[in-house]
Amino acid sequence: MKDKDINQMFLSIGIKNTKHRRDIIKILDASNKPLSVEEIYLLLKENNSSINLSTVYRTMEKLIEKNIIIQNNPFNDNIYRYQMCKDKHRHHIVCIKCSKIVEIEECPFKDFEDKIKKETGFDIENHKFEIYGYCNNCKKNKE
User: Fold this and answer.
1) 138 annotated binding-site participant
2) pLDDT tens digits for the chain (143 residues)?
3) Which stretches of the chain are assigned E, i.e. beta strand?
4) With 0-12 CB in 10 A as exposed, 13-18 as middle and 19+ as buried, what is 115?
5) Which domains does the chain have, with CATH numbers?
6) Is 135 within any annotated ligand binding site?
7) Does the annotation place 127 within a ligand binding site?
8) Contact status, residue 130 vs residue 108, Cβ threshold 8 Å
9) How many CB atoms lie within 10 A of CB 24?
10) What is the pTM of this model?
């Protein structure tokens, strides 16, 4: 994501445009997997950022609040991971051994959500779905 696009995004949601926030967005946008705060912090430090870990946490909270990023816990390990919210929710398949995460392109639950809404009267806002297994590399090594 270019600085110009990030600047426009921050302006449109009404948050202050800072170098640290831009750097965090760039890291998340470039990542092909959800990242923990600690991973983001280490990547920032590798790029000679003077950011504090507490600033990363506060920034993540603000970006979640503004629906710029989403938070999930794909490994059920009490470590939240973050990724850009790209106008759709996501589902993942996660390798139990190497932690590789692959995004599932289609959501199979639209009809199911409609049925549940009709049966319960709930207004469904969101759902999460994750599948766990072994990727091809780990499956070969497992055998």
Assistant:
1) yes
2) 888 999 999 998 899 999 999 999 999 999 988 899 999 999 999 999 999 999 999 999 999 988 889 888 867 788 999 988 865 566 778 888 887 878 777 777 888 889 999 999 998 877 777 788 999 999 888 76
3) 35-36, 69-72, 81-84, 91-95, 101-104, 130-133
4) exposed
5) 3-84 (1.10.10.10), 91-142 (3.30.1490.190)
6) yes
7) yes
8) no
9) 28
10) 0.65
